[in-house]
Design brief:
Blueprint: E1 3-10, H1 29-48, E2 59-61, E3 67-69, E4 75-81, E5 84-91, E6 103-109, H2 117-123, H3 126-133, E7 139-140, E8 143-147, H4 148-168, E9 182-183, E10 186-187, E11 190-191, E12 195-204, E13 208-217, E14 240-243, E15 250-258
Parallel strand pairs: 1-14, 11-15
Antiparallel strand pairs: 1-5, 2-3, 4-5, 6-13, 7-8, 9-10, 12-13, 12-15
Helix pairs in contact: 3-4
C-alpha cells in the first residue's frame, strides 16, 4: 500500500505561521510560503522514510521543471496560494524494488471578483462548463456573474486539472491536455488516466476559503486481465491530512477514480 500524505500550513499575512512561526515573520509572504512548504516536506519525508530527512542535494528537476528526489525514495509536489502552503508526499513500501507513485497537488484561494466564464469557455470541456453554470443559487454580492456555488465549482475543476498537470510534469499552458472531470450533473466517477483524485474545501471567513485537490498514481496490479473483471484496479490510499500549525476547517468533497486504459484492452 502506498504512503500518501497532504501536509498543510496557514501563514499570517506577515509571513509567520498561525502557530509555530518558522520564519519570524521577516520574509515576504511568497518567500515565507516557499520556505514553509519546504519545512513541511522535510518533516513529512523524515517521518515517512525512517528519519532520512530532506536534503537539498537530494533533489533535482525533470526537463519540464518538476522537482523530484534523485534517489527516488519518495515523490512530492508543492503548491501555495495566498497564505496557505500545501505539500503532497508519497512513497512506496519498498523503494528498492519499485519507483514511488507520482503525486500532484494544487490549492487555490477562492477570492472575490473576477468573471471566470471566459476561462471556463477557453480551457474547460463543455460538460465542465455546464456543471459550473448548472448551480442555481443566486449571484453573490460583488460578483454579478458567478454565484457562490458556481465559483466553488469553477475552482473545483481548476484545482483538479492543475494537480493532474503537476503530477504529469506539465505546465498550466497544457491545461487542455487534462481530462474532463465533470458531467453536467456532477463529477465523473471514472476517468481514463492512471491517477486517483481527491478534492477538498478548507478554511473559513477569517483565514480565507480555499479549494484543494491531490492526485496519486493508481496501484498497478500484478497482471492485467484479458477482460475487465472489476471496474477499477486496486486504488491508492486516500491521503492522510496533516496540519503543521493551527488546523482550519476542512471538508471532503469528492474522489474520482482513475482507470488505466490498458486494463480495458486485450493483451
Amino acid at each position: 500500500m502506498e504512503t500518501f500524505y497532504i501536509g498543510l500550513s496557514c501563514l499570517s499575512n506577515d509571513g509567520s505561521a498561525v502557530s509555530a512561526a518558522p520564519n519570524g515573520g521577516l520574509a515576504p509572504l511568497k518567500n515565507a510560503l516557499s520556505a514553509e512548504a519546504r519545512r513541511i516536506l522535510a518533516l513529512l519525508d523524515r517521518n515517512g522514510s525512517g528519519g532520512k530527512g530532506l536534503r537539498l542535494r537530494d533533489t533535482g528537476t525533470e526537463p519540464g521543471g518538476r522537482p523530484f528526489f534523485t534517489d527516488y525514495h519518495a515523490d512530492f509536489n508543492i503548491s501555495h496560494s495566498r497564505n496557505m502552503a500545501a505539500v503532497a508526499w508519497s512513497a512506496a513500501i519498498n523503494p528498492s524494488t519499485a519507483l514511488p507513485f507520482r503525486t500532484g497537488c494544487d490549492i487555490q484561494y477562492m477570492g472575490p471578483g473576477k468573471n471566470k466564464n471566459a476561462l471556463a469557455r477557453e480551457y474547460f470541456s463543455p460538460e465542465e462548463s455546464a456543471f459550473i453554470t448548472g448551480a442555481s443559487d443566486p449571484p453573490v454580492s460583488g460578483d454579478p456573474v458567478y454565484s457562490r456555488e458556481q465559483k466553488e465549482r469553477f475552482y473545483q475543476i481548476w484545482v483538479l486539472k492543475e494537480c493532474y498537470l503537476k503530477a504529469k510534469g506539465l505546465s498550466v499552458l497544457d491545461i487542455k491536455k487534462a481530462p474532463s472531470f465533470a458531467a453536467p450533473s456532477g463529477f465523473q466517477r471514472f476517468i481514463e488516466t492512471p491517477f486517483f483524485f481527491y478534492l477538498y474545501e478548507l478554511g473559513d471567513e477569517i483565514h480565507g476559503r480555499f479549494m484543494l485537490a491531490a492526485a496519486c498514481e493508481t496501484e498497478r496490479p500484478a497482471h492485467y486481465p484479458r477482460e475487465p473483471a472489476a471496474e477499477v484496479p486496486v486504488r491508492a490510499s486516500p491521503p492522510a491530512i496533516r496540519w503543521f500549525g493551527e488546523a482550519l476547517p476542512l471538508r471532503y468533497i469528492a474522489s474520482i477514480n482513475g482507470i488505466e486504459p490498458q486494463l480495458y484492452t486485450y493483451r
